[in-house]
Amino acid sequence: MDASDSRTVKLTTEQDVVSARQAVRQLCQELGFSLVEQTKTVTAASELARNTVTHGGGGEMRLQVVRNGTRRGVRLTFEDRGPGMPDIEKAMSDGWSSGDGLGMGLSGARRLVNEFEIESQPGEGTRVSIARWK
Amino acid sequence: MERIPILQMGEFLLVTIQVELSDQVALTLQDDLTERIRTTGARGVLIDISALELVDSFIGRMIANIAGMARILDARTVVVGMQPAVAITLVELGLTLTGVHTALNPDRGMQYLRAALAEEVHGHGRLG
Ligand SMILES: Nc1ncnc2c1ncn2[C@@H]1O[C@H](COP(=O)(O)OP(=O)(O)O)[C@@H](O)[C@H]1O
Ligand SMILES: [Mg+2]
After folding, report:
1. Predicted-complex ipTM score
2. 10-residue block means of pLDDT along chain B (128 residues)?
3. pTM, two decimal places
4. Structural domains in chain A plus CATH codes
């Protein structure tokens, strides 16, 4: 992928979650991320991609290379038009799940990256954007 | 669908995860292993995850579930070969894998299973 473009991966099935992980891994490698940085970024992406599929009813992930001076990083944006979250704070807390998950996806993903933003409107959907700098 | 093979070696079951684990493959492995422990009466399960490049909360839950189910069926579980980058990430993600025994490599894992089993046999002997 050319450092200047952005691309999207559709997220409808759990197989798409695997494709999303692979796309993120490849981009991190292209940017020269260390193995630990790669693993953290891909793991955060896996959590958020699964949430988009299972809680958000499907959506997409956008991958971008970002720059800040000489630093480079990846920005990943997960977006769906699903049910949204009535209480973001609760959803972000360790161990809370509306289903039978471990409830560590959102809170854990936040710890694994440098930037984390979440927007969600009940009935409209959810957008989570993360960035990890090299 | 892809299935992860389960090998039997005496009273132990051995699993090497060599594919990218989709959620469905992970769930199938959990079911298959539980069933195999039940039908074989295996006393130990060794899961080699050295080829696994990622353990997220779903895969972590599967590993913990396998260990929990195995315990109920009177078998011990040991997970071997976790890559350092995966271990570091797991801690930061906040997963503790409670009740899951880990070992550096398959040899150490087998040592653990044999020792755990010997201890149990010894314990039963004294009670009996
Ligand atoms: N994209 C989403 N759309 C709607 N709800 C979501 C979304 N992502 C997360 N949630 C809500 O936040 C909760 C916590 O998410 P997470 O920490 O990943 O735990 P888990 O997925 O194990 O339930 C979920 O149980 C769900 O209720
Ligand atoms: Mg989740």
Report:
1. 0.92
2. 92 93 94 97 97 96 95 96 97 91 97 93 58
3. 0.94
4. 6-133 (3.30.565.10)
